[in-house]
Amino acid sequence: MISFQDWQQLDFRVAEIKEASEHPNANKLLVLKVQIGDEERQIVAGIKGHYDPDELIGKKIIVFTNLEPAMLRGIKSEGMLLAAVKDGNVVLITPEKDIETGAKVQ
């Protein structure tokens, strides 16, 4: 359990996927370029095999933005996308209605 105060420190934002490609050094990872308001970031996500890179372009997703950047198989990841997983099925968390990128999830 975490406190409400701890929850308030987490920063989730709406992002739009601008580019998506296969990770050159990993079987299950995709490299995404996402737009979050005025900022572009790169996110490495373990969704290969669940989504084709071409179908992701233009999709709005929810990203965890204040996670410390990490190197994943030699590629820098500057955030984490949110997805639901059950019995090996992976589904991206997306806004129900259209909203501008950078919008804060509360």
Give the structure's gist in a few sentences.
The protein is mainly β. Helices cover 9% and strands 43% of the residues. It has helices at 4-9, 53-56; strands spanning 12-22, 30-36, 39-45, 60-64, 70-72, 75-77, 80-81, 83-86, 89-92.
* Estimated share of beta-strand residues: 35-45%
Number of strands: 9
Q: What's the CATH C level? A: Mainly Beta
Uncertain segments are none
**CATH architectural name:** Beta Barrel
CATH topology: OB fold (Dihydrolipoamide Acetyltransferase, E2P)
Dominant shape: globular
Strand order of the largest sheet: 3-2-1-4-7
Percent of residues in helices comes to under 10%
Please count the helical segments: 2
Q: What is the mean predicted local confidence, pLDDT?
A: 96
The radius of gyration over CA amounts to: 14 Å
Order of helices and strands: HEEEHEEEEEE
Given the helix and strand composition, which structural class is it?
mainly beta
As for the number of domains, it is 1
